């Protein structure tokens, strides 16, 4: 049962923003400043990362307009190449692609809260807070789609307001550090260095989520018109916020104090607002992660629901409650998240799964060339701006990242590939079951 589209462009854009703004932007700067000393070069990292993400969003907007169905890469890759390619992409998304980031955000939230209240890093409250936050958000996502959309817009708006407050007060109140954002030969030298390349990999992870709206495409009203607006506007807003936020971090806090530290947001908050207000801002950062948990909780089960509509082995997950919510898929993802939180194994999963998730997005963006060559019909509302250069730029940067990850992290990357290929066993099992039942399983066409 497919729910009636009830989500407007604001809620779809909120999904994009909430998926992108997570813990990464508040933590990664501390490791960038170890090797990159020029503030302008660091800001260039975030601008370049944002432009690459925007190139991907421009392409996904056209692909989504051509194939308006929930499921993200699962549905698109099935349509562009072959159902088995889509199945493997969907399998990895269902297994950990969404559950691991939810677990990461929940644990980060609980870490902030327990440290602020002086409960200690190993406090048993950490696990309870993390699981409780995910459970609360999961229950909220059982209600009507309109209410879920309003909730997502609300919590995302609060997060954006938090970031804006950080930026405005940082430039207005903080004592400026003795640094310069002016160009010098050192800037170009650092931008061409291997340290810059390594940092760009992690910046791109912070931008991941720019494609989030395609996972709930069936629930978006007038997707051919609203999806491009949501993807492009959401990604553009985050690129601006990320660049300004990192400028504030550099402007307000000593680089020597941030170097090698993960709690960059907390360090900057103390310098901007003082010790007491800095603690309050840390609390707001923690609660701001609710929007990330909510966005992933919304998107992930829709992939499993769409796969359930196409494959017998996942048929139970196609079921929806009276509000059109795939409740079994929702609680299945909740169970995986709880396991990752309790086992604390999500960090290792995120490392080795990064390669396969990037590969999935790479194949999807490359698919724009396949689709245009095969289908001469153009979407009514949107064509990729800057084609063919925008997809080529994305493929060049992402392809370089894949080669770099395979070279630097061969074990994790190969294990990630092995995990994806294990999904092939499920695909073959499904084909065997379908054959025995005398049914022909095919991926549903768009519309």
Provide an overview of this structure:
The chain is mainly alpha-helical and about 450 residues long. The chain has one domain: Up-down Bundle (Amino acid/polyamine transporter I). Helices cover about 75% and strands about 0% of the residues. It has helices at about 10-20, 30-35, 40-65, 75-80, 85-95, 100-115, 125-140, 145-175, 185-190, 195-205, 225-250, 255-260, 265-275, 275-310, 325-345, 345-375, 390-410, 410-435. It is globular, with a radius of gyration of 21 Å.
Query: What name is given to the CATH topology?
Result: Amino acid/polyamine transporter I
Task: Point out poorly predicted stretches.
Answer: 439-447
The helix fraction, in percent, is over 70%
Examine the secondary-structure arrangement and name the CATH architecture: Up-down Bundle
Helix and strand content put the structural class at mainly alpha
Elements, N to C (H/E): HHHHHHHHHHHHHHHHHH
Radius of gyration, in angstroms, nearest whole number? 21 Å
Beta-strand percentage range: under 5%
Cα-to-Cα separation, first versus last residue: 14 Å
Oligomer: single chain
What's the overall average pLDDT, rounded?
84
Query: Sheet with the most strands?
Result: none
Q: What count of domains describes the coordinates? A: 1
Main CATH class: Mainly Alpha
Separate helix tally: 18
Pfam families: AA_permease_2
Protein name: Amino acid transporter
Keywords: Membrane, Transmembrane, Transmembrane helix
GO cellular component, one term: membrane
